[in-house]
Design brief:
The protein has about 400 residues and is an alpha/beta fold. It folds into 5 domains: about 60 residues, no CATH class; about 45 residues; about 70 residues, no CATH class; about 80 residues, no CATH class; about 70 residues, Helicase, Ruva Protein, domain 3. Helices cover about 50% and strands about 10% of the residues. The chain contains 17 helices and 8 strands. Helix 15 packs parallel to helix 17. The two termini are about 55 Å apart.
């Protein structure tokens, strides 16, 4: 608005369009259109007041000219879908591939990129926070790729790795070049760093990534996890094949709180499961998480992961009195309870307070049991349940 108002002042002063365009306020073609519209509204008269922002906004809407047919984007019919994908954080190359695959689009990626520049939402900058540590409180460690070096024993050129430990307060670093990322090397590097620094920090902060999830699976299967992903996957698959071929054991991999998994895990896991896993049932994976997990799996970048899902189960709260009572009594019996712990009114109180969510009911029961122990009670009266409910609010 300020620019248009400045142009109008210069037009009132008698400046020609060529002179105004030379100052780079607006091109000559647009200046001609603006001059004609300003003349129609009487804004070029120095005796009249300049238009307000509302009038200039209306003028800008009227100034939009019809786009020639040859300039209409071939993606005009898909702009709404592209905007939706962009809002979900899907990359432009993935959007272009989806348009080609699902809609028969024959245009180039450049067309998709131009649409994204126009319809993609403006993202706020990532918020950052400065981490403050006391001297000796913590150290950060990680492996990084090192240079290729000649093995002094074999004379061959081998890949190396950097082990780096950084003290969080002083930022002093210890770095060591190693030949591998095995657990023995990892522990030895820690000992060397502690000796170099002359002490041990209060805690070690390890860079956590998607590969750590596979390391946890390896330990569960009795495999010494490698710090190289390719070797780690190879060892895991050999172990899984051995369990199935020689022991007829089908591993079940349960990942709780799966909604917090890094996005890279959902993109990598199909590759991990693709080594003969499509032809044989060698591993069953359960992803357990909040409802947000289902929304993540339905996104376009994770289509390969979603196509391998055989069963989806969404647990709803148990609201019916009979089912809720049966659930609680079964849980108590499974925990070893041999007598009646709750009255009918206590079960109803628990159902209403937990709103039928088993986890909430479990938290209330756990708190009530803790309150009952000092009192020597072998049951949970209603007033004790009420006290547990109040304590959790």
């Amino acid at each position: 608005m300020f620019t248009i108002r400045q142009i109008l002042v210069r037009m009132r002063r008698g400046d020609r369009d060529r002179e105004i365009a030379r100052s780079r306020l607006m091109g000559r073609k647009k200046l001609g259109v603006l001059r004609n519209q300003a003349a129609q509204h009487g804004w070029l008269d120095p005796q009249q007041p300049l238009p307000d922002d509302c009038a200039l906004a209306i003028l800008q809407q009227h100034r939009q000219q019809a786009v020639p047919t040859q300039c209409v984007s071939t993606l005009k019919d898909h702009e709404e879908q592209i905007a939706k994908w962009a809002a979900e954080g899907i990359q432009g190359t993935t959007i272009h591939a989806a348009l080609v695959r699902n809609h028969g689009y024959t245009g180039s990626y450049s067309s998709v990129r131009r649409v994204l520049l126009r319809v993609a939402p403006v993202k706020a900058p990532d918020a950052t926070m400065r981490l403050i540590f006391a001297p000796g409180e913590a150290a950060q460690v990680d492996f990084g790729a090192g240079p290729a070096m000649i093995d002094p024993v074999t004379g061959e050129i081998r890949k190396t790795w950097f082990f780096v430990m950084t003290l969080c307060w002083s930022r002093h670093q210890y770095a060591e070049i190693v030949w591998n990322q095995t657990t023995m090397t990892w522990l030895a590097c820690h000992r060397h760093a502690f000796k170099w620094f002359g002490g041990v920090p209060g805690r070690i902060i390890i860079d956590f990534g998607r590969i750590d999830i596979y390391r946890g699976l390896a330990r569960s299967l009795g495999v010494e996890p490698s710090y190289r992903r390719a070797q780690l996957w190879k060892d895991l698959k050999e172990r899984i094949h051995d369990l199935m071929d020689h022991k007829q054991v089908l591993p079940v991999w349960i990942i709780d709180e799966a909604q917090n998994l890094p996005p890279e895990f959902f993109r990598d896991s199909p590759a991990f499961l693709n080594f003969a896993f499509d032809s044989r049932s060698l591993l069953t994976a359960w992803l357990v998480g909040h409802p947000h997990l289902a929304q993540t799996l339905d996104r376009v970048p994770y289509a390969a992961r979603a196509s391998r899902i055989q069963v989806r189960i969404r647990l709803a709260p148990v609201l019916e009195r009979e089912r809720f009572a049966a659930l609680i009594l079964h849980a108590l019996k499974s925990a070893g309870c041999q007598h009646t712990l709750l009255s009918d009114s206590g079960l109803e109180l628990l159902r209403q307070a937990s709103k039928g969510f088993p986890r909430q009911a479990g938290n209330i029961l756990h708190t009530a049991l803790r309150l009952a122990v000092p009192k020597g009670l072998n049951h949970l009266p209603d007033d004790l349940l009420q006290a547990a409910i109040e304590a959790l609010r």
